[in-house]
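ok, trying the design again with the full structure, not the truncated one.
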């Protein structure tokens, strides 16, 4: 028997792994929305998340505002952006250029997505990338060409995972095969679509692990405080909201009551995912911080403590803004 390795006894390896915290933001659609978003960004920054995801319109329509937001996050905050990119609405050449631009800006995390197909049934241009898997391949090719500039580093590539069947997919088994294929193409981690039933995350992880998926699968949870938003998102994502939550939100008399109900339901979902071994919590914020911060407050995540220099960098940024 070999002697126990010193490495195995290092506190960084023997303690429970810290849980990652991330938020999702979308690019603002007006100057007023931008002002409110930056207020939210400053509030979220105080919680020192591990990264902040910035969505990308599947039509490529918000390409400029998305890239500008990512750029400003790098330049003006202590936050690390995870830039979403979609195959739909972009040629491979455009995507390769955007990936290069992101790397030049200092971005080291990309969420590779296919994007939703246009509702008008328009067919993708000849030569377009068909699946998220193709975008991962492209990101890895751009990365390889620039490996010297990246100090031989690596881009962290994330992908989408689905606790309930993707609307276009023939089965949940097929979704797992796709996730495995994305892992084989070089995905480093996955973030889940929203889900409303506590057992769905654990079930996804069990099925994925059984099939050979080893990458971290991070549950995406949305603060369930708005009836209208829950219904809209459920429709968009093709997921069934919990009827009892809808009833309770509909019966609530005022915003404070809806906030209380929604935060409790979200905390319960997130806690169920953490009990199932979730390596992080990804909060869909809808560019609002109040409910996200309340969820975070009640979750009491076991997070790692950042260095004093990082904490003072946040304080300096806040004094300056
Ligand atoms: P894929 O993994 O390519 O899958 C798309 C469909 O094709 C699925 O039905 C899959 O089963 C099937 N498929 C995949 N590969 C193959 C294959 N090799 N052979 C046969 N079938 C295959 N959308 C946006 O527009 N912008 C965003 O910023 C955005 N952010 C998101 C963030 C998260 C965390 C999630 C979960 C979703 C996000 N979406 C976003 C939505 C996403 O673009 C849609 O769900 C889209 O319909 C599928 O994207 P995907 O990356 O999962 O695609």
């Amino acid at each position: 028997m070999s002697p126990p390795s010193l490495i195995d006894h290092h506190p960084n390896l023997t303690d429970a792994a810290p849980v990652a915290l991330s938020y999702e933001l979308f690019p603002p659609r007006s100057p007023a929305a931008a002002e409110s978003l930056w207020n939210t960004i400053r509030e979220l920054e105080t919680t020192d998340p591990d990264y902040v995801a910035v969505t990308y319109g599947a039509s490529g329509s918000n390409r400029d505002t998305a890239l500008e937001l990512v750029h400003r996050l790098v330049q003006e905050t202590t936050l690390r952006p995870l830039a979403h990119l979609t195959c739909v609405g972009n040629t491979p050449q455009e995507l390769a250029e955007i990936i290069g631009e992101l790397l030049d800006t200092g971005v080291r995390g990309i969420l590779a997505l296919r994007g939703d197909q246009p509702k008008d049934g328009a067919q993708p241009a000849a030569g377009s990338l068909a699946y998220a898997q193709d975008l991962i391949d492209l990101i890895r090719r751009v990365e390889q060409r620039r490996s010297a500039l990246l100090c031989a580093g690596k881009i962290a590539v994330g992908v989408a995972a689905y606790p309930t069947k993707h609307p276009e997919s023939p089965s949940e088994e097929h979704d797992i095969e796709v996730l495995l294929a994305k892992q084989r193409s070089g995905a480093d981690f996955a973030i889940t679509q929203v889900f409303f039933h506590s057992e769905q995350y654990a079930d996804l992880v069990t099925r994925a692990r059984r099939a050979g998926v080893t990458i971290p699968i991070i549950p995406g949870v949305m603060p369930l405080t708005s009836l209208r938003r829950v219904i809209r998102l459920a429709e968009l994502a093709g997921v069934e909201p919990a009827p009892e939550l809808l009833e309770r939100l509909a019966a609530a008399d005022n915003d404070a009551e809806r906030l209380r109900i929604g935060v409790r339901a979200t905390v319960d979902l997130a806690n169920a995912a953490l009990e199932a071994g979730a390596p992080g919590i990804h909060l869909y914020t809808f560019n609002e911080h109040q409910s996200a911060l309340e969820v975070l407050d009640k979750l009491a995540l076991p997070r790692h403590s950042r260095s004093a220099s990082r904490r003072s960098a946040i304080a300096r940024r806040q004094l300056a803004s």
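Keeping the full-length input from now on. The first helix runs from residue 11 to 14.
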